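ok so for the tutorial part 2 we go from a plain amino acid sequence to predicted structure tokens. step 1 is just haveing the sequence, like this:
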Amino acid sequence: MNFLRSLWFNLTFYAANLVMSVGLCGVLFLPREKIVKAVHIWLSAVAWIENHVGGIKYKIVGRENIPKGACLIASKHQSEWETFKMHLILNDPAIVLKRELLKIPLIGWYMSRSGSIPIDRGSPTKSMLAMLPAARKAAADGRPIVIFPEGTRVAVGESRPYKSGVMALYQYLNIPVVPLALNSGLLWPKNSFFKKSGTITVEFLPPIPSGLPREEMMRRLRDELETAAARLAKI
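step 2 — the prediction. this is what the tokens look like for a chain of 235 residues:
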């Protein structure tokens, strides 16, 4: 049963993404604000399929911890699932992502035109010089900036060293950082065909204020984020 349900869900999920990306592609020639609205329509349709076909729901805890105005959202990254949810959860985020994703036909175009911040992992210095001005513009517009500190998807119960990008943005922009813990990998494991039904928890932790020394900020971010992720993994 799990195989058949996962098969049906995967077929429906990816078919829906194809249909929505093609059906809405005309907005790619419109202003960014119109593209963001179209992305919301697209991702809302995908979320409906996750819920009604895959039995995958989600709940948000701690939304009150998101400050008004610009902030950094430093998120765990366990699954493909959260890449389809940030726009629904945060309305109009600027997501830091690897540049290779922008080369994906149609989907990459939406990512680029909706105001994502691409980075080139093969050229860290060049990437940093390009990332910071783009992030400053997003912050000036009051948009939350989403970054995955570990730089890649990491399975539930595992962790990797936090990259320097989150610290660079924290110091350059002088804005608070909100740790974002989740447990999406329990239902939608990394690189797995099989999906499980249930409810994913997305938890915003209290913000870490701006202006802290490098070592203190990174220690607090890692300790608080990993502790919360470990707790959610046991739910």
